[in-house]
User: Fold this.
Amino acid sequence: MDRTCCTKTRQIVEGIVLDNKIKHLEMIEEIIKRMASCSFKLKGWAVTLVAGIFALASKDANQIYFVIAYVPIIVFWGLDAFYLQKDRLYGALYDKVRALDNDKIDFSMKATTEEFTDWKYKYSSCLISKTVLWFYFPLAIVSSLVIVISYVV
Assistant:
């Protein structure tokens, strides 16, 4: 009878500890989802603002609008890289927590470049990543083509 009591207690404790690990991983997953959502929204805003600036430029024929079109591209490129960096850091935290023993779960949400030192977690790496570079660089090229075409026509 004493042995059954200890076994049930151990199962309850292991269940609570495992629940803690699952809850911690779920918290990290929610942050990763939020970062991905912000990145997606930034891309939409970048295209919308650049298109709006070009619409104003064609209407008023003021050439300063063409130069201003680069401002949202650069700003949103930087912001998108920031969110990608945070996404990568929290992904690394997720992997770290996933590999931890159940009794070592402390609900730490520390995901910094001091904690994870690999180059892919650096901001500069995120600025030139495929997902960011291949969106904003073509947007800048298209903007340049619109500027060149508007001067020729």
About this structure: The helical segments are 2-60, 64-68, 70-99, 123-127, 130-152. The radius of gyration is 24 Å. DSSP finds five helices and no strands in the chain.
